[in-house]
Amino acid sequence: MQGKELAKEMLEKEDGDAELPRDAKIVKTLLKSMGVRDYEPRVIHQFLELWYRYVVDVLTDAQLYSEHAGKPAIDSDDVKLAIQTKVNFSFSQPPPREVLLELARNRNKIPLPKSIAGPGIPLPPEQDTLISPNYQLAIPKRQSAQAVEETEEDEERANPNAPQEQKTDLPQQTPQRVSFPLAAKRPK
User: Fold this and answer.
1) What is the pLDDT of residues 49-73, one digit of tens each?
2) Are residues 57 and 78 located together in one domain of the fold?
3) What one-character DSSP code corresponds to residue 186?
């Protein structure tokens, strides 16, 4: 009986808890007993929601078990069975420590592969990467002096009234495309 009196006394001592419902006071007391002193007020409401949802689920399952057994009302055996079923199917237990240690021993017996990479960041082989030639450079190709003169003569014939200022001594440049991989080495 001392535990109930102590809990009741703790509930009464709370400042500003007079307006809280009984269940909220219980959640607050549970948090304090677990060593949680600082939390947002919404935490209490979240725990209450979880608590109510769990109780409804257990009672719904207990009602199903009671109906299946042909009982007119739910009894403690139905509730115990519903709780046990919920624990067995909702919360999975990790394997025992001995099983985990045995699995770790078996896995650690297999040696790691030797690293064949040198110093620095290991890169995959070139055939497994996306660094093949993926762009082109437009390098102007110089025309010979004779081709430039022929081009100028052709332009004069086509347009004899063209102003002389537009003509320059620079040869016409036609682009030439060159592709090369990024990892290519420069010739020495």
Assistant:
1) 999 999 999 999 999 999 999 999 9
2) yes
3) P
Residue 143 belongs to a domain? no
pTM exceeds 0.70 for this model:
no
As a whole number of angstroms, the distance between CA 169 and CA 145 comes to 10
**Nearest CA-CA partner of 145 in 157, 135, 153:** 153
The span from the first CA to the last CA of the chain, in angstroms, equals 95
What would the pLDDT profile of 9-42 be if each residue is shown by its tens digit? Answer: 555 555 556 788 999 999 999 999 999 989 998 9
Per-residue CA distances from 62 to 72, 77, 164, 169 (Å): 12, 9, 104, 100
Quick one: which H or E segment has residue 142? strand 137-142
Identify the residue whose tokens are 């919920």.
86
Is 57 a domain residue?
yes
Helix (H, G, I), strand (E, B) or coil at 70: coil
Domain count, the chain: 2
Of 53, 55, 50, 60, the C-alpha closest to 30 is 50
Domain that holds residue 74: 45-106
Give percent helix, percent strand, percent coil of the chain, each to the nearest 5. Answer: 55, 5, 40
Is the same domain home to 8 and 29? yes
Evaluate whether residue 14 is within a structural domain. yes
Asked if residue 181 belongs to a domain, the reply is no
